[in-house]
Amino acid sequence: MTIAYGILLVTSFSGNFLIVRVIYKMKTMRTTINFFIVNMAMSDLLFPVFVFPLLLTEIYVSGFGPPGRTICLVLFQLQYISSWVSIQSLILITLDRFVAVVFPLHSPIISSKLCLFVILTTWIVATASSFPMLVFYSSMEFSEKLTCGRIWFKKYFKEKYYSHVMPLNVIFKTIPFVVLTILYSVIVFKLKTHTIPGERSINAEEKRLQRNRKVLKMAIAILLGFAICWMPLSIIGFLGVSLGDSEVCIIPLFALVAIFLNFANCAVNPCICFTFCRNFRQALKGLLHQNAPWQV
């Protein structure tokens, strides 16, 4: 698992850093939708910069010592903040695409002036929503060292799970997945049925079909990435509470894979961005070309 987390750390840091760098350096890339992508990249950077180093410290050092509980709470809070800001950003990106495709003559629903306020709101909402979750985590002694762990299998925490965690899971996971599915379904349908006036040549039709395939592939990648990264851990959390003290019956390997997939989301987002967004690839090539040694 150490190698896997190391790969995630390098991939997520380099991928998200390049996204931020590209938009910072290229003025032509500074659009509303790209600012949302930067917001998602900045939230994903919390994992390689803070979360992964703390996790590796917990594994290879004798726990966190006396300040273990505080570090434990910070560790899990950063995970929730990062994840929920990323999900909100993904919704905003999809909503921007939806308006651009379905209502091409309509002005953007989020203007450039409003963009900064909306981005700030995503962080405020995520941070405020993360505090109720902290009651389920604490440092505990395991193998003669303090480690972070969930304590939701006790009756008190089981009750809190249904009143706190489940509603937040619905708000930040279930509802976003449904909204993303609906919006991308409408986008793909609109692109398939839309014909530009005068577009009759074979070449133009081939370009339209190619564009539709790219959008469809990106939509499938985003939805699959979302489901694969988020759903397994949510299922484990629900089963852990429902089974009570028999939580240990959950297959350990499945739990490890679910946690790893949850962490992998911070590396999946930049991969999807560079794979399906040609303007990002071109901007990255231009940036690398500018910084090449032979250009000095």
TrEMBL record:
Keywords: G-protein coupled receptor, Membrane, Receptor, Transducer, Transmembrane, Transmembrane helix. CDD domains: 7tm_classA_rhodopsin-like. One of its GO terms (cellular component) is plasma membrane. It is a multi-pass membrane protein. Its main location: membrane. PROSITE patterns: G_PROTEIN_RECEP_F1_1, G_PROTEIN_RECEP_F1_2. Residues 15-273 form the G-protein coupled receptors family 1 profile domain. The chain crosses the membrane at residues 6-24, 36-61, 81-103, 115-137, 170-191, 218-241, 253-277. It is found in: Membrane. Pfam families: 7tm_1. The keyword Cell cycle does not apply. SUPFAM superfamilies: Family A G protein-coupled receptor-like. GO terms for molecular function: neuropeptide Y receptor activity. Belongs to the G-protein coupled receptor 1 family. This is G-protein coupled receptors family 1 profile domain-containing protein.
